[in-house]
Design brief:
Rhopdopsin 7-helix transmembrane proteins
């Protein structure tokens, strides 16, 4: 019992990019720039949607929550990584590690459910346009977002609380720049069967049903679009889904890449690069994808920036 209490207040070492000593200044500048772009882009998206009444629609309501999730997802891991690169202090406390695991799962799973809600929104808009305002009412949109938050927080709590029963060995080195739960469980001295079952359960619940929902929605969307006779009508219908499809491909593509790289080449540089893409590049690119491909979003951002400059 005494040993278990001691392991609960132990520190972990986030090795991350410790081997690239000569590249530390370059990595710090690169990741700091990307993080600032991520925060600025996602916060601008949220402010533009809130301030522009033309964007008070279900699609942009989901997009504002997606931007909030992306902002939180990047903020969960990147500041600690930047601190480690700058100060060369790789230590993270036990409580800090649990906190990072909790929010990493919350925002990561939330992204998945919100993308599913956005796919359903596009499905209703294209396949049932006459009933869109009735089906996608404010109450349903709030319930979808609130349900996504409740489900992700519940699953993250299950993951995090289950770690409290685990005892850890003396080797506390994590070959990542954040507390990756599978890597943390590899350091355990006690049985982790239940914890691993929870990991698989959360991965299945947050990954497979949303992906099936997205694929089903777009199967119906494509079938509906193909019945449109005019080429202009087909292009307009496809263009409304282009941004969302790009984000879905980026999110699930990098997520699968992280999983495959960690399984095939654990603790390798490839796994680190895949994790950086998943944790930083994806949240950074999402605002650009939606703003550059969406005329209404670009207009709202210009109006927001114009009002800010005028007020100064």
């Amino acid at each position: 019992m005494e040993t278990r209490n001691q392991t609960r207040i132990a520190n972990f070492l986030l090795l991350g990019f410790a081997e690239e000593k000569d590249l530390q200044p370059l990595l710090f500048g690169l990741f700091l720039s990307m993080y600032l772009v991520t925060c600025t882009g996602n916060l601008l998206i949220i402010l533009a949607i809130i301030s522009d009444s033309h964007l008070h629609t279900p699609m942009y309501f989901f997009l504002s929550n997606l931007s909030l999730a992306d902002f939180g997802f990047a903020t969960t891991t990147i500041p600690k990584m930047l601190q480690g690169i700058q100060t060369q202090k790789k230590v993270i406390s036990y409580a800090g590690c649990l906190t990072q695991i909790f929010f990493f799962f919350v925002f990561g799973c939330l992204d998945s459910f919100l993308l599913t809600a956005m796919a359903y929104d596009r499905f209703v808009a294209i396949c049932h346009p006459l009933h869109y305002t009735v089906i996608m009412n404010l109450r349903l949109c709030i319930l979808l977002v609130l349900g996504s938050w409740c489900l992700t927080v519940s699953m993250a709590l299950i993951e995090t609380v289950s770690i409290l029963r685990v005892s850890f060995c003396t080797n506390m080195e994590i070959p990542h720049f954040y507390c990756d739960l599978p890597e943390v469980l590899k350091l355990a001295c006690s049985d982790t069967l239940i914890n691993n079952l929870f990991v698989y359960f959360v991965a299945i619940v947050s990954g497979i049903p949303p992906l099936i929902g997205i694929l089903f929605s777009y199967f119906q969307i494509v079938s509906s679009i193909m019945r449109i006779t005019s080429a202009g009508g087909k292009y307009k219908a496809f263009s409304t889904c282009g941004s969302h499809l790009s984000v879905v491909s980026l999110f699930y593509g990098t997520g699968i890449g992280v999983y495959l790289s960690s399984e095939t080449t654990p603790s390798s540089r490839m796994s680190l690069v895949a994790s950086v893409i998943y944790a930083l590049v994806t949240p950074m690119l999402n605002p650009f994808i939606y703003s550059l491909r969406n005329r209404d979003m670009k207009g709202a951002l210009w109006r927001l920036l114009g009002c800010t400059v005028t007020s100064q």
